[in-house]
Amino acid sequence: MNNLIEFISQPWPWYVAGPIIAIIMFILLWFGKSFGISANLRTMCAMAGGGKSCDFFAFDWKSQVWNLVFAAGLILGGFIAHTYLMPSYDVHISEATINELSQMGIDDPGKNIVPEQIFNWESLFTLKGFIFIIVGGFLIGFGTRYAGGCTSGHAISGLSDLQLPSLIAVIGFFIGGLAMTYFILPHLLAL
Amino acid sequence: MKFIKYLLVGTVFGITLAKAEVISWYRIYEMFRFQSFHMYGVIGSAVILGIIFVQLIKRRHMKSIDGNEITINPKNVSVPRYLIGGIIFGLGWAMTGACPGPMFILIGNGVTVIIAMLASAIVGTYVYGLLRNKLPH
């Protein structure tokens, strides 16, 4: 048992993670559901009474409870991995990435799951933290619903079904992501 | 009780994305800078196997556990909503290093400030709902 826990406590390579993601999509289809996490954001709006002020949120959110339970599982899975399966919090990014981010003012890139100097509660009340956390979160919530899905709904489920709209969405994800990384992020990190 | 299976599948997904470092801001930055194959390997292998699974489901007319044939609804074909919405999400993805799934997983990892990010994402979805009749789709 200890050997097993030691074995799965190593960082998982892409060829383990990718197939597990596909299997999870398959299992959800077999359960008669579809794999798409951003739908939960809409469900939460509906649960909070958003249907009273906007008909986009006037739907029977109880049919989506399974997805909220799935999201609760994500939190639980994150907790289990963090508590029991992480002998070190190092992220095994490339040397090039480490050097580049060091030069851009990030302390010890890859020594934690996120750059802690940006993603913490004190930082939330600074301009930089507000942009990364609040503006960033807003763009995710607005953009995923506008596009009708996120990485799970479009990049995994949609592309697996060879759907053209999902390919357009994924191209959009990359246009936005590359523009942010190459043109905007260097300025934001310098704040 | 019927929801337990979703909790279990979600837990496995959460552990997988945490252990493969997919929830790390650094991995997303590295991906958009093309400095590692890792993220492309994760998404690419998931899609290739996913295509095989979906083809099997369709060709064998597989049934779901409730006995109905599994159907996947095709999305409405258009360009603006997927492209513009996708770009807006992509900007946020590269900035925060997280998409909706990893946000939940990061909270479980103890990065509790992501709760504020999630709250802002819910507000973003609500604002989309208010504006959607005025936006090109």
Descriptive report:
The complex is a heterodimer of chains A (191) and B (137). With 191 residues, chain A is mainly α. Chain A folds into 2 domains: 1-87, no CATH class; 118-191. Chain A is 62% helix and 0% strand. Chain A is built from 8 helices and no strands. In chain A, helix 7 runs antiparallel to helix 8 (164-189). Chain A starts with a helix and ends with a helix. The mean pLDDT of chain A is 96. Chain B contains 6 helices and no strands. In chain B, helix 1 crosses helix 5 and helix 2 (25-32) crosses helix 4 (80-96). Chain B starts with a helix and ends in a 6-residue tail after the last helix. Classes of the chains: A mainly alpha (191), B mainly alpha (137). The interface between A and B is large, with 127 and 113 residues.
Which labels suit this protein?
heterodimer, A: 191 residues, mainly alpha, 8 helices, 62% helix, B: 137 residues, 0% strand, globular
Low-confidence stretches of chain A: none
For the sheet with most strands of chain A, the description reads:
none
Question: What is the CA-CA span between the terminal residues of chain A?
Answer: 48 Å
Rg calc of chain B = 18 Å
Instruction: Summarize the helix and strand pattern of chain A as letters.
Output: HHHHHHHH
Give the proportion of residues in helices of chain A. 55-70%
**Quaternary structure annotation:** heterodimer
Structural class of the helix and strand makeup of chain A?
A: mainly alpha
Strand element count of chain A = 0
Distance between the termini of chain B: 39 Å
- Please tell me the total number of domains of chain A: 2
Largest interface: A-B, 127 and 113 residues
Count of helical stretches of chain B: 6
Unreliable segments of chain B (pLDDT under 50, ≥5 consecutive)?
Answer: none
Number of helices of chain A: 8
Report the major sheet of chain B. Answer: none
Number of E-state strands of chain B: 0
